[in-house]
């Protein structure tokens, strides 16, 4: 979604460039999967799905730039 469409509802976006907004949006899911993987490891659960979702998030992040 373009920055101009979000600006009226989220005025703090004027502090960020379009590229910075994309980086934040792309990094968010990847960071979530890393943290989720750590939680699953600590609980001795299967974390393979987290690796798949992390890989997908990284592919999307790279594709945005």
End-to-end span in angstroms?
15 Å
Number of helices: 3
Mean pLDDT score: 88
| Order of secondary-structure elements | HHH
- Biggest sheet: strands, sense, closure? none
Helix content: 55-70%
Number of strands: 0
What's the structural domain tally?
A: 1
Question: Which structural category fits the helices and strands?
Answer: mainly alpha
Regions with little confidence, pLDDT below 50 for 5+ residues: none
Question: Quaternary status of these chains?
Answer: single chain
Task: Report the portion of residues in β strands.
Answer: under 5%
Query: Compute the gyration radius: what is it?
Result: 15 Å
> Overall 3D geometry?
elongated
Describe the protein in words.
This protein has 65 residues and is mainly α. Helices cover 69% and strands 0% of the residues. The mean pLDDT is 88. It has one domain (17-63). Helix 2 packs antiparallel against helix 3.
SSE topology sketch:
Layout: H1 3-6, H2 18-42, H3 48-63
Helix pairs in contact: 2-3
Keywords:
65 residues, mainly alpha, elongated
Can you summarize this structure?
By secondary structure, the protein is an all-alpha fold.
